[in-house]
Design goal:
By secondary structure, the protein is an alpha/beta fold. 50% of the residues lie in helices and 10% in strands. The chain has three domains: 163 residues, P-loop containing nucleotide triphosphate hydrolases (Rossmann fold); 66 residues, Orthogonal Bundle (Helicase, Ruva Protein, domain 3); 90 residues, DnaA protein, C-terminal DNA-binding domain (Chromosomal Replication Initiator Protein Dnaa, Chain: A, Orthogonal Bundle).
């Protein structure tokens, strides 16, 4: 038998250079806190992650629970936290895996157990009372021995937990992850292109960010585009992107174009006038309303909105959105066009 061979299930240790120091990333070299894209909606999850990756400090976030919809970045944060903790402890002292795998691991309750736990897929013990009871025992032991516990689950599962268990988890820190907005999806797409060593036009990146709501799906589409580009040895066209989206079973979330079309229909205007530059009062109000709804519903950034609405300066977009907000405040007791349009634009399955 060969010596020094890793255990069958041991993670592959990769090394990365960070701030001049060689560190290992056994749970995936691309899963780092630096690679987690944030905006104003997701500052708290990253701040909590940085807090728990400093084991030498007082454990103010133990346990740390992330909850949110599929594709919101829970698994990325868990793996990144596991990688950071692996830099502090010996990497075999950090557990990363599902709740089911965790509770079947003999080391969990053993004398030579892990020093930190990053537990994914908590939904696997939904309606499974014995598994929940075992987790309760594990949770007690983990907190008693001051071992860091980080968990992730869907928001519906978290809200459906027994109140007693939810109360115990809340003794630490429970943070909701919001789904990435269009600006985050654009930055993610650009990073994936760099990762797979290919380029596509900026307008194609915007199109993909609009059409791919979940990051996993977006990553899958980009992989298909990379393979297609390598196979055809030519630049990717919009028709190619549309074809690949159809072939990957495209999901169709609300896009800025959908909102523009619905606003245009409501005000009996052509959609191209909404993104144009004419300055008639009724047309300007409709355009500002569309900008406000794209920002409110999709979370699009000001520069992205400027690009969508005919290449306008981001300061113009900010002014337009502020004007609509003032209009809403001034008419807060009325059923305005804005409230009607918001109901029309928000997808019925949300």
């Amino acid at each position: 038998m060969l010596k020094n061979m890793p255990a069958k299930d041991a993670p592959r240790v990769r090394f990365t250079q960070r701030d001049g120091v060689l560190t290992h990333t056994p749970f995936g070299e691309h899963f780092t806190l630096e690679n987690f894209f944030i905006n104003k909606k997701n500052v708290s999850p990253l701040a909590a992650a940085r807090e728990v990756t400093k084991p030498q400090q007082k454990q103010s976030c133990n346990p740390l629970v992330y909850y949110g919809k599929s594709g919101s970045g829970k698994t990325h944060l868990l793996r990144a936290i596991a990688n950071e903790l692996a830099c502090f402890y010996e990497y075999r002292a950090v557990f990363y895996g599902s709740i089911e795998t965790l509770l079947q691991d003999a080391r969990v309750f053993g004398a030579n157990g892990y020093q930190a736990y990053c537990v994914d897929d908590m939904h696997l013990f939904a309606n499974h009372i014995p598994l929940q009871e075992t987790f309760n025992t594990f949770l007690d032991a983990c907190l008693c021995k001051k071992k860091q516990l980080v968990c992730a689950c869907s928001d519906t599962f978290y809200k459906g937990l027994p109140e007693s268990l939810r109360a115990r988890l809340k003794q630490g820190c429970c943070v909701q992850l919001k789904n990435p907005d269009i600006d985050v999806r654009m930055r993610f797409a650009q990073t994936q292109c760099l990762l797979h060593d290919f380029t596509i036009a900026k307008e194609h990146v915007l199109l993909l960010a609009q059409r791919c709501e979940h990051l996993r799906y977006l990553a899958s589409v980009l992989l298909n585009i990379a393979a297609y580009k390598k196979r055809t040895q030519r630049e990717i066209t919009k028709q190619d992107v549309e074809k690949i989206l159809r072939s990957t079973g495209e999901q169709k979330p609300m896009t800025p174009q959908d909102i523009i079309c619905r606003v245009a229909e409501y005000f009996s205007l052509p959609p191209e006038e909404i993104t144009g530059s004419r300055q008639e009062h009724a047309l300007v109000f409709a355009r500002q309303t569309a900008m406000y709804l794209c920002r409110e519903i999709l979370g699009a950034s000001y520069p992205v909105l400027g690009q969508i609405f005919g290449g306008k300066n981001h300061s113009t977009v900010i002014y337009s959105i502020k004007k609509i907000k003032k209009y809403i405040i001034a008419h807060k007791n009325e059923h305005t066009e804005i409230t009607k349009l918001k109901k029309i634009c928000i997808p019925q399955n949300d």
